[in-house]
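Journal club side-thread
Mid-discussion, someone asked how the predicted structure for our own chain would compare to the paper's figures. Pasting it here so we can look after the session.
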Amino acid sequence: MPRRRKPEFLQVLYDLFRLTPIWVGPVVAACSYGLIRWGVPALFEPAFPEEAANRTFNHIVSNLAPMVAPYVGGLVLFVWLFALFDKISNWKSLENDKQRFD
């Protein structure tokens, strides 16, 4: 019997957006952008100049995070749009079924 795979992050995000109100997707995208754009560099900024051992890694992460942030925010919005289209199409089909049975 094959092992069950854990659901992927984007699938979990898609399911979350299908269950939540419409306004949640852009808020999550903006928060993820802000967290990666300003939170990650602040987190990896060395507290003391003597911390030379991790200076290279911290410098790379601090410079890379602002470049990656728009892509992460865009990916979240992309998943949200797919969930929104699915939610609207299911809503329309439910309305058509309701009218057919009335």
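Post-session note: The radius of gyration is 20 Å.
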